[in-house]
Amino acid sequence: MSANEAKSTRKGRPAETIGEPALPDETEQAQRFEKARSAQARAVLEDYAELIDDLLTSGGEARPTDIARRLGVSHPTAIKSIARLKREGLAASEVNRGVFLTAAGHELAARARARHRVVVDLLVAVGVPRACAELDAEGMEHHVSDIALAAFSRFLKR
Amino acid sequence: MSANEAKSTRKGRPAETIGEPALPDETEQAQRFEKARSAQARAVLEDYAELIDDLLTSGGEARPTDIARRLGVSHPTAIKSIARLKREGLAASEVNRGVFLTAAGHELAARARARHRVVVDLLVAVGVPRACAELDAEGMEHHVSDIALAAFSRFLKR
DNA sequence: ACACTTATGTAGCCTTGGCTACATACTACC
DNA sequence: GGTAGTATGTAGCCAAGGCTACATAAGTGT
């Protein structure tokens, strides 16, 4: 069966004629969504790493309740996520002690923060109010690829 | 206890001195993350609605397997998500028949597609290669607020 | 008509990331 | 040193969004 007819044989609908909107290639589109999903999976880890790093830098200690409060979640949720960070070798802690980052975790945090800053700056540069930029960047940053990030930096330098 | 000391009484660490990086306000930060989480919850629905709308427009029919293939997921996953769309009043279908959108679903799809387009255009405008822009936009678009979107449009018009 | 292929739907499992409720461990203070 | 208060941790629940395996339905072709 010749690929083009194969898609629409069911119910005898005629093969798609030319002149229609033309969707992107099927597998390419699938890859886009796949990439977005994997970015989403990393997002939580990045948020935690970045926040823990911030707390350590500015206050000296990153405690589960502080983390939970800042992320707007309950403390058990925070503890569970921290456990995942530990599983993935990004953080470490002993019972009833504050959390700290491993080298890998620190590196992740640094990259996340750098990206965050660039994204906010870009948004502001194209006319988004600062407060709104901070809000929107929180979700967007995890989906910005290195290539796009480099483009952002270049744009900001002008 | 005077709020400022309260945060750091544990283990006798002295209250935070001035001159440190200064984190954003606690509750404001929590709201940022909360907003990002709720955007994420909408993301799947938007992706499905937009895709279904695309399929209906360009091919005449939106069938679960096509949807699954284009999203890069298994067909049971797609069917489950479609069930959620139906639950939320965005889509409808009968057994063994293609999916279609309700008025609400169509409206959501239209908004999602418009936003998608603006985001891609903005990325391209600031120097991101087209292919990369398409990839990154897929994840970013769900986090762009109306205010930012308006700013993007204004920027593109110049 | 019967067989074959593909599409659709169901069942059941996993992980993530939310939550509440409860138990335990600190710390501070009198 | 005991008590109050806060932090920490555990258990168990839920929904979302992945998956595989299986069963049924619908077209296709000989």
In short:
With 158 residues, chain A is an all-alpha fold. Chain A is built from six helices and two strands; from the N terminus they run αααββααα.
Explain the overall architecture.
The structure is a homodimer of 158-residue chains. By secondary structure, the first copy, chain A, is mostly helical. Chain A has a single domain, classed as Orthogonal Bundle (Arc Repressor Mutant, subunit A), CATH 1.10.10. Chain A has six helices and two strands, in the order αααββααα. Chain A has helices at residues 26-59, 64-71, 75-87, 103-125, 130-140, 146-157, and strands spanning 91-92, 100-101. Chain A has a two-stranded antiparallel ribbon. In chain A, β1 and β2 form a beta hairpin. The longest helix of chain A is centred in the first third of the chain and has 34 residues, at 26-59. The radius of gyration of chain A is 22 Å and the shape is globular. Mean pLDDT of chain A is 89; it is low at 1-17. Chain A binds a DNA duplex (30 and 30 nucleotides) through α1 and α3.
What percentage of amino acids of chain A are in beta strands? under 5%
| Biggest protein-protein contact in the assembly | A-B, 61 and 61 residues
Structural class of chain A: mainly alpha
Low-confidence stretches of chain A are 1-17
Instruction: Give the end-to-end Cα distance of chain A, rounded to a whole number of Å.
Output: 54 Å
The CATH topology of chain A comes to: Arc Repressor Mutant, subunit A
Characterize the largest beta sheet of chain A: strand count, sense, and whether it forms a barrel. Answer: 2 strands, antiparallel
Provide the succession of SSEs of chain A: HHHEEHHH
